[in-house]
Write a sequence for this structure.
């Protein structure tokens, strides 16, 4: 069991900086000149053996033997580099113009921003044999102007991870975390990074996770200020360890990370509050600067292979948007981690978290600084 | 540090080698200092001056899309610095860093004093022990404090199991925990210059003070304390400076609920991708620190009279 994954999902502020708001994905406008750019032609049967592509990913976020699998399937070689956070990825991609990198793993809002900045190679679904394995809903989240720009890799939601043996009743509302009962004061944590720091208050008040309304966000700030004195800490990387030790009894958590707690202590459970939550997703994109498009596509196809993609769910305990791969997951695992199994629909009901744009991101940052520094 | 160039009093000769140096003329006199200084100067130019110049330039620029800057003249970052929220963070940071410094001084002075009183063999052992924590990674040492201080941690376990208290204390994730972490982390930087300063005091001065009828307390106040002041200030600066800029300790031991100047700067560069404003924040800290160093050198000059260049 891999419980040491340190994936920061603290992505989005950066995106916002990137400016551009997400154009409605539905607005596909045919063949007109103003339409989305077209993918370059790729030969699906091209011989890529002997080529070598460089992939940047989080550590432990794909199978250890992926290089071997890829080489066996295509004859091409894989060189893997790592980034610890989306911010680091931004530095890698923009700092050197993405030189030397071919394929990147990143979170949706970041990839969206990259695509809008013209850094990503549009994806041609027809050039991917395994594209059909993907969940149509996930494909929708991977588009900018109706054109897919990355391949969905994992997705999930945010909720409350809690110790069922240490709370009297299971949390059902974001208010259970924001204004906890007296006996839980000082024993709850919330995330301190941009979008997820404001999410509980946004959802508790009934607003969108992508809201750009200043009045709504002013209310969000007030609620966050009220919540702060009851917090043990702001924590977005070790909350499940705090649940295991019993320091905390309820924490804001991503479903996949809550599973790392459940793996150690079955009393650790996950709840999606009734006010709703988000649907975030990570994907794999090809940089426009890549000179090995055929090999890049071959890599994407290798990942989308049911067996490879199933590994991700089995070992990282995140949901995957690959229907063929899902069929391969053992029922025992789905039972042990119900967020992967029967409660998967709760994740899908979440509101897709998208880029909020430059100004709103600034506002989000200001609010978080105001609250944490208060 | 105040004591580096000068030979220890009473031991080295002040004039021994001077004549031979004066005799050397011609090319050698130029080449040798240049050759000796070049690596150091190059180091400072590339790794200190250039980055400082860059950050200074950033202060007047506009933020770029993916971090970085756009070179358009922009002064808005300076007025933003004066917003209450940032002043508040600076004030809190100074209070926390200052508290840690005072604590380190209170612990470090007696420790350094005690070490100078040890037999020479044990002195070496003690000094090595002071430095030993640096052999372990900073992060690991700070994590150790989490294990000690958390509500289910060792300290609480000990307090409860010995019956001293019934309830578990919240010690972690408070400003107090941040102060403890900073004091612990930088204490060696206080002890070492203090040790050097105390050790350097000529024993004859103390005897003279005693001969003139001063008791030990009076001698301490009138002779030892003033003479060790430069060392104490050096120690204080060495603790205060990294404390003020630290962002790891507030995050790990403060639970993200205490924001210090270091966190603010880090967030501007990494999260908000606002390099220009981050540069303004960083430069304000640099200016504060330069003022501190000026103060230190002024005090040193007053205490030691002429600069001690042998």
């Amino acid at each position: 069991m891999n419980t040491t994954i340190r994936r920061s999902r603290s992505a989005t502020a950066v995106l916002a900086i990137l400016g551009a708001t997400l154009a409605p994905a539905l607005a596909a406008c045919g063949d007109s000149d103003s339409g989305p750019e077209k993918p370059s032609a790729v030969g699906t049967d091209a011989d890529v053996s002997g080529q070598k592509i460089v992939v940047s990913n989080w550590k432990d976020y794909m199978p250890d033997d992926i290089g071997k699998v890829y080489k066996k399937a295509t004859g091409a070689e894989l060189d893997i580099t790592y980034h610890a956070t989306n911010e680091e990825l931004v530095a890698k991609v923009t700092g050197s113009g993405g030189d030397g990198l071919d394929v990147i793993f990143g979170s949706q809002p970041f990839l969206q921003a990259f695509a809008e900045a013209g850094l990503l190679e549009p994806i041609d679904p027809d050039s991917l044999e395994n594209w059909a394995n993907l969940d149509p809903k996930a494909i929708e989240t991977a588009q900018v102007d109706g054109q897919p720009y990355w391949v969905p890799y994992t997705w999930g939601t945010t909720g409350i991870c809690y110790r069922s043996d240490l709370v009297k009743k299971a949390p059902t509302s974001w208010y259970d975390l924001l204004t906890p009962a007296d006996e839980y004061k000082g024993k709850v944590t919330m995330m301190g990074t941009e979008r997820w720091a404001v999410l509980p208050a946004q959802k508790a008040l009934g607003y969108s996770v992508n809201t750009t309304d200043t009045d709504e966000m002013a209310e969000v700030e007030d609620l966050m200020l009220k919540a702060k004195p009851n917090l043990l800490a702001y924590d977005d990387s070790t909350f499940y360890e705090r649940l295991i030790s019993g320091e905390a009894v309820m924490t804001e958590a991503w479903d996949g990370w809550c599973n790392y707690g459940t793996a150690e202590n079955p009393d650790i459970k996950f709840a999606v509050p009734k006010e709703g939550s988000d649907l975030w997703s990570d994907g794999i994109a090809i940089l426009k600067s890549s000179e090995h498009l055929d090999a890049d596509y071959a890599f994407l196809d290798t990942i989308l292979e049911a067996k490879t993609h199933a590994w991700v769910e089995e070992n990282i305990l995140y949901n995957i948007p690959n229907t063929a791969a899902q069929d391969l997951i053992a029922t025992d695992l789905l039972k042990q981690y119900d967020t992967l199994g029967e409660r998967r629909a709760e994740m899908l009901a979440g509101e897709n978290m998208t880029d909020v744009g430059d100004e709103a991101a600034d506002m989000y940052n200001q609010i978080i600084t105001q609250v944490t520094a208060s | 540090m105040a004591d580096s160039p000068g030979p220890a009093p009473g031991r080295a000769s002040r004039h021994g080698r001077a004549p031979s140096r004066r005799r050397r003329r011609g090319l050698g006199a130029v080449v040798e200092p240049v050759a000796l200084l070049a690596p150091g100067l190059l180091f400072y130019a590339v790794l200190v001056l250039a980055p400082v110049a860059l950050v200074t330039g950033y202060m007047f620029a506009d933020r770029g899309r993916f971090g970085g800057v756009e070179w358009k003249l922009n002064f808005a970052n300076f007025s933003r610095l004066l917003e209450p929220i940032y002043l508040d963070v600076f004030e809190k940071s100074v209070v926390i860093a200052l508290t840690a410094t005072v604590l380190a001084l209170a612990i470090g002075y007696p420790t350094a004093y005690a070490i100078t009183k040890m037999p020479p063999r044990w002195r070496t052992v003690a000094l090595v022990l002071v430095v030993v924590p640096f052999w372990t990674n900073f992060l690991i040492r700070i994590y150790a404090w989490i294990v000690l201080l958390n509500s289910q941690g060792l300290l609480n376990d000990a307090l409860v199991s010995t019956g001293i208290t019934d309830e578990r204390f919240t010690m972690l994730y408070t400003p107090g925990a941040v102060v403890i972490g900073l004091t612990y982390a930088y204490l060696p930087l206080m002890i070492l210059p203090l040790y050097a300063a105390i050790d350097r005091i000529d024993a004859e001065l103390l005897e003279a003070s005693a001969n003139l009828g001063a008791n030990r307390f009076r001698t301490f106040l009138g002779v030892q304390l003033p003479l060790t002041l430069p060392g104490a200030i050096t120690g204080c600066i060495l603790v205060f400076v990294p404390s003020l800029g630290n962002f790891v300790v507030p995050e790990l031991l403060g639970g993200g609920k205490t924001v210090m100047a270091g966190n603010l700067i880090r967030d501007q560069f990494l999260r908000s991708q606002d390099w220009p404003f981050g540069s303004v924040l960083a430069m304000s800290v640099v200016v504060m620190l330069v003022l501190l160093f000026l103060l230190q050198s002024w005090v040193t000059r007053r205490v030691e009279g002429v600069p001690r260049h042998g």
The interface with chain B takes residues 10, 13-14, 17-19, 85, 87, 90-91, 93-94, 117, 186, 189, 192-194, 228, 231-235, 245-247, 361-362, 365, 369-370, 372-373 of chain A (CB under 8 Å).
